[in-house]
Design a protein that fits this description.
The chain is an alpha+beta fold. It has three domains: 7-30 and 76-220, Phosphoenolpyruvate Carboxykinase, domain 1 (3-Layer(aba) Sandwich), CATH 3.40.449.10; 225-293 and 387-587, Phosphoenolpyruvate Carboxykinase, domain 3 (Alpha-Beta Complex), CATH 3.90.228; 297-379, Phosphoenolpyruvate Carboxykinase, domain 2. It has 17 helices and 30 strands. The strands form six sheets. Strands 11, 12, 13, 14, 15, 16, 24, 25 and 28 form a nine-stranded mixed sheet that branches. A hairpin with a 5-residue loop joins strand 15 (279-283) and strand 16 (289-292). It is globular, with a radius of gyration of 23 Å. Bound molecules: guanosine-5'-triphosphate, sulfopyruvate and manganese (II) ion. Guanosine-5'-triphosphate binds at residues 246, 248-254, 276-277, 300-301, 303-304, 309, 434, 482-483, 491, 495-496, 499.
Length: 588
């Protein structure tokens, strides 16, 4: 409807209309009037529920189908031409076969429904980093979420001539056996069907900004990563930036919105959030790595978010937010989730819409463990003044991390870039609720990209290794672990805001402002170089958190060897050498 004359765009949309056969087609122009009308429609049909507008203005609740509550990695495919290019960690199917399968599912799937055409931009519209897409969907929930998470409408449509990612989503009947999340890198195309949840269907996020963009990054010489971006301002007023890759539900949003401990605040430290989930990083003219956040909002984990753990996130969700699969407090039409506070509502509906109260729940959680908020970035009290800087921010440190009960120390620094890539490649984490499967079992999740790398993982590591040549002033690479537990299974390190103490050491290392001791696995802090003033952690506990257990690491080496084996000849030699060198140091 006049938003573009681009024939490629219009022809492609016509083909999808012919396939899905919607009753109506509506272009999303990005205007508040149109979005408001859609909110009202979604409330009228029960797709969304309007919350208490005095306490939570512009906020809504949505409940997804109970069988559709997380990303489905087993139903996610990379359909490049050759199976070997998808690699052993991705599902693959021949593109022709997959298109045939999908076309059957899409055929007539929108009969009697409206197809929404969402032109959107990842990144600041018109900036050199920006990339464009169109998502066609029959879900108002998707439209409203995309309008928070990305830049949608006319402004984005004006740039479609620069090329665009084609996306099609149909909810159909949500049959889990016919659920598909498919990326076609050769066609720059994304297809989702039979899901209405999060990363499966908000295609700008994991499908585009990671799976498709990782392919573009490889071709064009940059990196698309599952990383937060955080600015840390020191008492001198200088802001230094880090990125951090932790697996899903392992603390990116929390670290991205960190509030320094009181003592740090008094001294003048401040943190700025640039992004909480995805970073696109390119080499700048100065030879440093520069990062932008391609998103425009936060799709964050609700449970565990509270006034103490992450007040900035909580504030961010107090207006213009869509809550998915949290509990509804019927007394005042507000939301609740586990660990929000110590006062669970007594008259509530759980995430499935069933009556819930702490007395009768029998331990059943009120909110789904992967319940989420979709909140505009501009709501965030600590959003960085550089959030919309088209050039991004220069990165001093890259931080990898996961949930490890025992093995990984609180923090260590890699020896150099290649060793840093190795440290990223051996990341392991105990599984969380952000994906289907058994929570708790350890799995390797290199660079937190196992579910998101759009091509062969070994080629991806090679791309990381190759990047060194073009980054003359590379960031230093670290690994952190906030999740070591004691004999009772309790976290030893207080985490959250206190992680600032570790960040301070990391940044000092980047600018040669503090020392370290060399160990088998890399550089570790001297116990006295981590500031413990004002925190209830003893020097002995810290020493324990900074210990390297040789026996555990020897087991770890065996685990890594097992993991690496599946990559065969494709495993970059530099990584095989790093593993041998680590083993040799542990034996020495
Ligand atoms: P995705 O959105 O799935 O990519 O997750 P994320 O990496 O942004 O994780 P998030 O920050 O939402 O944290 C997930 C869970 O980890 C929450 O339950 C947090 O309370 C918990 N968490 C985050 N940081 C820490 C920490 O420093 N220590 C401990 N013990 N828990 C943490
Ligand atoms: C994750 O699982 O890493 C998320 C949520 O950030 S989703 O958008 O569902 O992928
Ligand atoms: Mn994520």
């Amino acid at each position: 409807m006049g938003m573009t004359n681009n024939k490629t765009v219009l022809d492609w949309i016509d083909q999808q209309i012919a396939l899905c056969k919607p009753e109506k087609v509506v272009w999303i122009d990005g205007s508040e009037e149109q979005l408001e009308a859609l909110r009202q429609e979604a409330c009228a049909t029960g797709e969304m529920y309007k919350l208490n507008q005095e306490k939570l203005p512009g906020c809504y609740l949505h409940r997804s189908d109970p069988t559709d509550v997380a990303r489905v990695e087993s139903r996610t495919f990379i359909c490049c031409e050759k199976k070997e290019d998808a690699g052993p960690t991705n599902n693959w199917m021949d593109p022709k076969e997959m298109y045939a399968k999908l076309n059957k599912l899409y055929d007539g799937s929108m009969k009697g429904l409206t197809m929404y055409v969402i032109p959107y931009c990842m990144g600041v519209v018109g900036s050199p980093f920006a990339k464009y897409g169109i998502e066609l969907t029959d879900s108002i929930y998707v439209v409203l979420n995309m309008a928070i998470m990305t830049r949608v409408g006319k402004d984005a449509a004006a740039y479609l001539d620069e090329g665009f990612i084609k996306g099609l989503h149909a909810k159909r009947d949500l049959n889990p056996d016919d659920r598909y999340i498919v990326q076609f890198p050769q066609d720059n195309a994304i297809c989702s069907v039979n899901s209405g949840y999060g990363g499966n269907v908000l295609q700008g996020k994991k499908c585009f900004a990671l799976r498709i963009a990782s392919n573009l990054g490889r071709q064009e010489g940059w990196l698309a990563e599952h990383m937060l971006i955080l600015g840390i301002q020191n008492p001198q007023g200088e802001v230094r930036y880090v990125t951090g890759a932790f697996p899903s539900a392992c603390g990116k949003t929390n670290l991205a919105m960190l509030i320094p401990p009181e003592g740090y605040q008094k001294d003048g430290w401040k943190c700025w959030c640039v992004g909480d989930d995805i970073a696109w990083m390119r080499v700048g003219p100065d030879g440093r790595l520069w990062a932008v956040n391609p998103e425009n909002g936060f799709f964050g984990v609700a449970p565990g978010t509270n006034e103490k753990s992450n007040p900035n996130a909580l504030h961010t969700t107090q207006k213009g937010t869509i809550f998915t699969n949290v509990a509804l407090n019927l007394d005042d039409d507000t939301v609740w989730w586990e660990k929000l506070d110590k006062n669970p509502p007594h008259n509530a509906l759980d995430w499935m819409g069933n009556p819930w109260s702490p007395e009768t729940a029998g331990g059943r959680p009120a909110a789904h463990p992967n319940s989420r908020f979709t909140a505009p970035a501009k709501n965030c009290p600590c959003i960085s003044p550089e959030f919309e800087n088209p050039n991004g921010v220069p990165i001093s440190a890259i931080i990898f991390g996961g949930r490890r009960a025992k093995t990984a120390p609180l923090v260590y620094q890699s020896r150099d870039w290649a060793h840093g890539v190795f440290v990223g490649s051996i990341m392991g984490s105990e599984k969380t609720a952000a994906a289907e499967g058994t929570v708790g079992e350890t799995r390797r999740d290199p660079m937190a990209m196992i579910p998101f790398c759009g091509y062969h993982m070994a080629d991806y590591w090679q791309h990381w290794l190759d990047m060194e040549k073009s980054i003359s002033n590379p960031p230093k690479i670290f690994n952190v672990n906030w999740f070591r537990t004691d004999d009772k299974g309790e976290f030893i390190w207080p985490g959250f805001g206190e992680n600032m103490r570790v960040l301070e050491w990391i940044l000092k290392r980047c600018f040669d402002e503090t020392g370290a001791r060399e160990t088998e696995i890399g550089y570790l802090p001297n116990v006295d170089d981590i500031n413990l003033e004002g925190v209830d952690v003893s020097r002995e506990t810290l020493a324990d958190l900074l210990s390297v257990d040789k026996a555990l690491w020897t087991e770890e080496v065996a685990g890594i060897r097992d993991f690496y084996r599946q990559f065969g000849d494709k495993l970059p030699k530099a990584l095989a050498d790093e593993l041998d060198a680590l083993e040799a140091r542990l034996k020495a």
